[in-house]
């Protein structure tokens, strides 16, 4: 499959500027190049000064890097956003219903819509959660759904991130940076604000406090200052005005979680944890976890503390479960899916494996449990050797992989060394679910800075852009 | 507040204050080393400074001979020396980083920026523009950090732990600065000031920003006894032991918890000695011994604060 044409966010096929980009394009053409260059340099030095960095794994410990920030925003017109938003809300509602069902009656398995072994033998399925009730029956309080635009401009969901999705701090910092650098642009456009996200998050977290707790104490739990997303953990705790805790700050007594404070132990009711399930409680999961809290699962199962997101949400965002999401929407909500799923070949099925092996140069192959752009093959961008290496992996462990057609991801003009050039991007909006489902208009736009690259992850050299949803 | 958070705040402030005072001690030693004197005397002075900083042995592991450049390099840039300004500023920043959510963004950025800039300095660059300019820079970054702290932080527990750290460290450091000068002073010599000594005493006063203050307070010539009185007992002198202990005590009583009664009592006792003490009686018992004893008590207070608030041993 040769990819020749990409949807350009700013210009239409005939070369004219799309209506929602008209004001920005005019501003860009009338603004002197030196001013832009100066502002770009200023943005870099500000990000450094603010310490808005992420730690890079595999490099010298404590290495911090900036995520490149591009000053050309990704603009989404009001109508497109309202469709997208409706689709995302629908999807996350169905996913939460699915997780609840899996850990209770498993109706969807009984009805035969999803093969039971696919779910129950999945490494992300947590038998410890079977029959456990959680407040409001909500499991994924924070979802960061990756959406791309392909083909003639239609949206596809690439991944539902329901465990500990990150990136929302960059959405907020990118906006703050754009307002600081180019206030005049905000006078020229009606850009929907996103700054109230932390308020909304706090509201969501408080709404799912254990039953009977009227004024819950919320904390953010981080693996520590060397975690790649530490900046975000600290940022969200600060913005919400709650404590940022590490495992060592918490302890469990009589199934109740406490934090160690200067005035003695203090009860904790809701933990927005940015620690993976495996590391949460050395008594229940990985014994070698130094960042967890012994007894946390016990307190959780007793309903004395809320974990956000719940334990075991991975069973719904796993790449092998992804193909069934449209079915979930029909089953639980009785609605047709608003957003497209990408056709997916599940290599554990012999016929899908055969197809995948025969079409490797045109497919994207991903590890079922992979994340962060590691361990994947982008067929059209790979050498023969890389493809052959992957073929061996596939034949050896077909169940570990899925394959999808290489989407012609939309692109957007972006500043690169040689000037302004189109680069591919995706979008991660955040969906908050508590007593109600809420979203801020926007998300994190990630952009692949290498020419032709379709991998936008920051760990793979991707950058970010401010995302503007225009008000009608 | 989380105990761990309080611990980071306390040490963030201590390391910043330590960086500043190390710059001050190096500054006075450097100034004194420029006065006309033999090489042996200069070596004695730098060596005495290392001894008071308790870094003599560590220095000799890294360098053979005591030269001004070697000591400056060791005390400012050495990554292996936990007392170097480089390490203090890095520790300040690391502690701030660990609790950046508790700090105002301005305070975090100040500490981050100081660290980023520190990484750009080298010994050669510093010597070219003169060490004085570098010491000024360190002092001003510390002033800025303190100003931003007071000017932006909510007046709650976090501010008090920061202030507690600042003044506990300052009490220790001012005592050390005095020891550097009194090291070679013979008992009974406190009342005599030779002309050559005038420069030494004025350099000491300059190093704690107290030269003009001395003139205003005493309107008279400089004598060791009065210098000591100013830096030990005058509670209106911001870097004196008396002022530092007043701040330690008042912050401590406001942080009070169920475990801290004995720590508060000890701090109050030390504070009242300074409040009601007379310099003559301090000198009778030997000034150096007094300073050493004072530093031991500060060390003890630091351990107690840690046990009571920062790293409580019981859950």
Mean pLDDT of chain A: 92
Spatial shape of chain A = globular
Q: What is the terminal-to-terminal distance of chain B?
A: 15 Å
Count of separate structural domains of chain B: 2
Task: Give the uncertain stretches of chain B in residue-range form.
Answer: none
Tell me which protein chains meet in the greatest interface and how many residues each side has.
A-B, 27 and 28 residues
Helix content of chain B: over 70%
Number of strands of chain B: 0
Query: Roughly how many Å is the radius of gyration of chain A?
Result: 22 Å
Q: What is the number of E strands of chain A?
A: 23
Described by strand count, sense and barrel closure, the largest sheet of chain B is: none
Class from secondary-structure proportions of chain A:
alpha+beta
| Average pLDDT level of chain B | 91
Integer tally of domains of chain A: 1
The helix content of chain A is 25-40%
Q: How would you describe the shape of chain B? A: globular
Low-pLDDT parts of chain A are none
Strand content of chain A: 15-25%
- Class by alpha and beta content of chain B: mainly alpha
Strand coverage percent of chain B: under 5%
Q: Helical element count of chain A?
A: 14
Helix and strand arrangement:
The complex is a heterodimer of chains A (472) and B (315).
Chain A: H1 22-30, H2 33-50, E1 53-55, E2 64-66, E3 69-76, H3 78-102, H4 107-110, H5 116-120, E4 142-150, E5 154-161, H6 168-181, H7 183-188, H8 197-207, E6 218-221, H9 230-240, E7 243-245, E8 250-253, E9 256-261, E10 264-267, E11 270-273, H10 296-301, E12 306-308, H11 314-317, H12 325-333, E13 340-341, E14 345-346, H13 350-358, E15 363-367, E16 376-378, H14 384-396, E17 401-405, E18 411-416, E19 419-428, E20 430-433, E21 437-439, E22 444-447, E23 463-469
Chain B: H1 3-33, H2 39-52, H3 56-62, H4 68-77, H5 85-98, H6 105-118, H7 123-129, H8 131-152, H9 157-182, H10 195-207, H11 211-218, H12 224-232, H13 241-255, H14 261-276, H15 279-284, H16 287-310
Helix pairs in contact in B: 1-2, 1-4, 1-5, 1-8, 1-9, 1-10, 2-9, 5-6, 6-8, 7-8, 9-13, 9-16, 13-14, 14-16
């Amino acid at each position: 499959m040769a990819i020749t044409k990409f949807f350009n966010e700013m210009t239409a096929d005939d070369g004219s500027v799309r209506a929602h980009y008209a004001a920005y394009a005019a501003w860009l053409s009338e603004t002197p190049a030196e001013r832009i260059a100066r502002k770009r340099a200023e943005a870099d030095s500000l990000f450094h000064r603010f310490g808005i960095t992420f730690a890079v794994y595999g490099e010298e410990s404590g290495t911090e890097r900036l995520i490149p920030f591009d000053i050309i925003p990704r603009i989404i017109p009001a109508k497109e956003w309202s469709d997208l938003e409706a689709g995302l809300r629908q999807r996350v509602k169905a996913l939460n219903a699915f997780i609840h069902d899996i850990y209770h009656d498993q109706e969807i398995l009984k009805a035969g819509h999803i093969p039971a072994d696919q779910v129950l033998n999945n490494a992300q399925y947590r038998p410890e959660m079977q029959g456990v009730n959680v407040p409001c029956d909500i499991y994924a309080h924070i979802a960061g759904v990756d959406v791309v635009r392909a083909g003639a401009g239609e949206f596809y969901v690439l991944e539902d991130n329901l465990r500990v999705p990150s990136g929302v701090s960059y959405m907020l910092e990118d906006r703050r940076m754009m307002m600081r650098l180019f206030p005049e642009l905000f006078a020229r456009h009606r850009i929907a604000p996103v700054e109230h996200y932390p308020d909304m998050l706090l509201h969501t977290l408080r709404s799912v406090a254990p039953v009977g707790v009227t004024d819950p104490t919320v904390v953010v739990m981080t693996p520590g200052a060397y975690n790649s997303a530490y900046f975000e953990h600290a940022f969200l705790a600060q913005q919400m005005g709650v404590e940022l805790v590490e495992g060592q700050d918490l302890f469990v007594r009589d199934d109740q979680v406490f934090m160690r404070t200067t005035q003695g132990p203090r009860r904790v009711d809701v933990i927005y944890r940015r620690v993976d399930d495996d590391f949460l409680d050395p008594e229940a999961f990985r014994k070698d976890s130094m960042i967890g809290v012994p007894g946390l699962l016990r307190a959780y199962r007793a309903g004395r503390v809320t974990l956000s997101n719940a334990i075991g949400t991975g069973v719904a965002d796993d790449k092998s479960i992804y193909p069934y999401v449209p079915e979930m929407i029909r089953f639980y909500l009785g609605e047709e899916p608003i957003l497209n799923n990408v056709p997916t070949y599940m290599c554990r099925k012999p016929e899908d494996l055969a197809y995948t092996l025969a079409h490797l140069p045109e497919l994207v192959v991903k590890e079922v449990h992979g994340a962060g752009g590691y361990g994947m093959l982008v067929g059209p961008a790979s050498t023969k050797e890389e493809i052959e290496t992957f073929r061996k992996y596939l034949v050896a462990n077909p169940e570990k992989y899925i394959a999808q057609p290489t989407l012609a991801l939309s692109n957007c003009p972006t500043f690169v060394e040689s000037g302004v050039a189109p680069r591919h991007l995706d979008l991660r909006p955040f969906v908050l679910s508590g007593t109600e489902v809420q979203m801020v208009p926007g998300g994190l736009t990630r952009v692949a800075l290498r020419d032709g690259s379709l991998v936008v992850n920051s760990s793979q050299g991707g950058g970010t852009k401010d995302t503007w949803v225009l008000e009608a | 507040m989380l105990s761990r958070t309080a611990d980071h705040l306390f040490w963030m402030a201590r390391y910043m204050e330590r960086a500043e005072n190390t710059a001050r001690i190096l500054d006075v030693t450097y100034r004194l080393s420029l006065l006309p004197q033999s090489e042996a005397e200069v070596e004695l002075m730098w060596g005495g400074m290392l001894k008071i900083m308790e870094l003599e042995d560590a220095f000799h592991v890294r360098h053979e001979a005591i030269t001004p450049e070697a000591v400056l390099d060791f005390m400012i840039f050495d990554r292996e020396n936990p007392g170097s300004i480089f390490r203090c500023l890095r520790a300040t920043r690391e502690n701030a980083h660990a609790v950046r959510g508790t700090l105002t963004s301005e305070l975090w950025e100040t500490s981050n920026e100081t660290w980023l800039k520190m990484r750009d300095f080298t010994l050669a660059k510093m010597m070219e523009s003169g060490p004085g300019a570098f010491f000024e820079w360190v002092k001003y970054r510390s002033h800025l950090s303190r100003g931003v702290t007071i000017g932006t932080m909510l007046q709650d527990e976090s501010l008090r732990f920061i202030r507690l750290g600042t003044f506990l460290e300052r009490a220790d450091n001012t005592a050390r600065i005095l020891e550097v000068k009194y090291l070679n002073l013979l008992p009974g010599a406190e009342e005599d000031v030779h002309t050559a000594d005038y420069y030494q005493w004025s350099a000491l006063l300059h190093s704690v920003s107290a030269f003009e203050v001395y003139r205003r307070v005493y309107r008279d010539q400089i004598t060791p006894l009065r210098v000591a009185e100013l830096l030990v007992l005058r509670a209106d002198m911001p870097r004196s032991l008396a002022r530092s202990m007043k701040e330690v005590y008042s912050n401590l009583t406001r942080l009070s918890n169920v475990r801290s009664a004995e720590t508060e009592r000890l701090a109050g006792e030390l504070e009242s000695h300074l409040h009601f003490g007379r310099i003559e009686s301090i000198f009778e018992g030997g000034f150096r011994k007094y300073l050493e004893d004072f530093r031991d008590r500060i060390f003890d207070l630091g351990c107690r604060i840690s046990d009571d608030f920062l790293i409580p041993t019981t859950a």
